[in-house]
Amino acid sequence: MPAHREGDRTGGSSVFSFGRLRSVCWILVALASAACGKLPFGSKPTDQGAPAPGWKLRDFQPQSPRYREIYGLEQFRGSVVLLALYAGTCDVCIVLTRELDRLDKQWQAEGLGVKIAVINAKDAATNQRDLVEVADFPLFQDTQQVDAFAQQGGGTDDLYVYTPGGRLSRYFRWADSVTVQPITRQGQNNLRAAVVKAGR
Questions:
Q1: Cα separation of 157 and 142, whole Å?
Q2: For residues 152 and 174, is the Cβ–Cβ distance under 8 A?
Q3: What is the rounded distance in angstroms from the CA atom of residue 11 to the CA atom of residue 82?
Q4: What is the CA radius of gyration of the chain?
Q5: How do residues 102-160 score in pLDDT, each as one tens digit?
Q6: CATH code of residue 163
């Protein structure tokens, strides 16, 4: 008769299962990742429903109530968030930032309660002033160490709309979604529809 393993003494009901342990570990890691704002396996930060990335950057907007503080999107929980990835070296980005600022004031007057923020590309750190001069909302400076653009999974001119709970409601890639850029009436209307939907 073969010798019983340590876990076989109760007739097999307590047999140590590496497969079961592995499954439990994967679940725990996924839960921990979600709690930390990191994505579980196979998910992308641009997937609908993805949690907002956990980056923290310095706010360089003097008009912001958190000017010079280092923080991230978690500070906007409870509100719909429209986040844009721009670069102060890009003339188009400066125009888009100005138009977002105009929309921000319009939406505030309408009582939409949307928070708008922009991340300035890490290689545009010396061109912050051009963005500061055209907007009042928070402006974050990306860095080589944080690389928030990579954490967001996007590139310059991309837009993200997050729910009040911090989940991605809509991702707009510049190459695919020119109609949501705020330089056109159609783009403004489509952006408004996206933020209204995110708040429902």
A1: 14
A2: no
A3: 58
A4: 22
A5: 999 999 999 998 999 999 999 999 999 999 999 999 999 999 999 999 999 999 999 99
A6: 3.40.30.10
